[in-house]
Design a protein that fits this description.
mainly alpha
Amino acid sequence: MLKFFRRIRRKLIKDGNLRGYLSYAIGEILLVMIGILLALQVNNWNENRKAKKEELVALQDLLYEFQRNKSEFQGHAELQNSLESSWVDYLAIITNEELPDSIRAQRRPLMAFRTFTIANIKLNSLLATGYIDRIQNESLKQLLLQWNDILLDYQIIEQDHVIHAKQLLSPIELRLRPNEIQQEIIGMKKSFYSPQEHRLIIIRALENMEYQNALIANHYWLKLKVAQHENIIKHLNDVIAQLRVSLK
């Protein structure tokens, strides 16, 4: 092919056909440009196909990660919801002075300061590399960008609850009432106090305003967490739904 064009060019020069030679030269330039454009188009097509494949892999990994996050958070939320309900019942009993001391002097529910932690490995990787900007689904991108902030807000509440439980409620209880759980942990066969003495100590502790406030505050932190559960699960569901849309 190149020899063919070379012969045409030589013939035009030899014949002194300037107009024909210029037309040929322009045609040759156009052919070269068309070839370059076609090569660029093929390269772009290959790059787009590669990018799309990488995006699908990333989206699939995110779907798996967020499905796991949802499952783990639902388990965490169910436990917190159950404990919050237990605290509602507990506070209703200990504040009802018409009930006998044998009922009011009961063991309180767990303080419920367990914290929720997950590793957003895939999402954080996309954020760190800037790859998240390549996600074409704008709604999904915004949901992903919001997730860490939503999770952090919840974890801050949980951390504050841990501080309250460990630095306020637990020390007050150690001063005012026997440590019932410790008795079970170390395998003590008998309490230092008779059942009657034990009930009396607990009832007296419940009359302490500092202890009352600490118990109420513990329930307050639980309620704050429970109030966030519905929005967090909705956000997780929205992310999962958009990921499925993008993967279709």
